[in-house]
Amino acid sequence: MINIGLTGGIGSGKSTVARLFQKRGAHIIDVDVLAHMVEEPGSAVWNRIVEHFGREILDKDDRINREALGGIVFRDSEKLEKLNSIVHPAIFDEWWRRFDDIANNDKEAIIISDIPLLIEVGWHKTVDIVILVYTSPGVQAERIMKRNGYSHKEAQDRLNSQMPLDKKIPFADFVINNEGTPEETEAAVEKIWKELLKKGAPPD
Ligand code: ADP
């Protein structure tokens, strides 16, 4: 079993790269999906978020409106820290449950967890290998403006709330430069995949 953390920044291409590894046989755990799960209306995490940020951040159907909440926390680092302190422990529990499940069923599993804040929250210390998906801030901003319809300012707020990708490079075992064409990125993934297979199944 190999325990890999895949990270980058918003819009750098983590999901795209995760799909390419999945196609080759990796097990993917998408931590964003887990984040949505633990924030389901009525859950303990949902209750604490509403207690702290008010009902203004809820949709009509009582779901947390992530854009509204993002609009609050991505401009205020203390609020972001508070939100993280509510959400992260629950995500970690859920992640561990999934990880354990996969590892128990497949001793040779290559498990890649897509974790946007891998390095910011210190989670990189718990994985065997860190893969960073890199693009320059300009390309990141461009891609999320296109993907999410953000204004330049909205894109900048989100980028500014994260550690710049340049600073994450020293923590990475592999860096995938995703500024080029999708074909170039796929070739980079293929090369790393072969190395991962060579590493085989190290003893747990
Ligand atoms: P993340 O998961 O890191 O937020 P995504 O994988 O969703 O990033 O990629 C961000 C956006 O950029 C998506 O709309 C995706 O389709 C696009 N994208 C990703 N890689 C490339 C690439 N090499 N060339 C052009 N567009 C890309």
What does this structure look like?
This protein has a single domain (2-200), classed as 3-Layer(aba) Sandwich (Rossmann fold). A five-stranded parallel sheet has the order 2-3-1-4-5, with helices on both faces. The protein contains nine helices and five strands. α2 crosses α5 (77-105) and α6 crosses α7 (152-160). It is of the alpha/beta class and 204 residues long. It has helices spanning 14-23, 31-38, 44-53, 66-73, 77-105, 137-148, 152-160, 165-168, 182-199; strands at 2-7, 27-30, 110-114, 129-134, 174-177. Bound molecules: adenosine-5'-diphosphate. Adenosine-5'-diphosphate (ADP) binds at residues 8, 10-16, 143, 147, 178, 182, 185.
- Which term fits the overall shape? globular
Structural class by SSE content: alpha/beta
Task: Examine the secondary-structure arrangement and name the CATH architecture.
Answer: 3-Layer(aba) Sandwich
- Any idea what the radius of gyration is? 17 Å
Ions, cofactors and other bound molecules: adenosine-5'-diphosphate
Strands of the biggest beta sheet: in what spatial order? 2-3-1-4-5
- Here the CATH topology equals Rossmann fold
CATH class: Alpha Beta
Number of strands: 5
List the secondary-structure elements in sequence, H or E.
Answer: EHEHHHHEEHHHEH
Report the oligomer: single chain
Strand percentage lies at 5-15%
Mean model confidence by pLDDT:
95
Number of helices: 9
User: Would you identify the regions where 5 or more consecutive residues have pLDDT less than 50?
Assistant: none
Give the tally of structural domains.
1
Most strands sheet: 5 strands, parallel
CATH superfamily: P-loop containing nucleotide triphosphate hydrolases
Report the span from N to C terminus. 7 Å
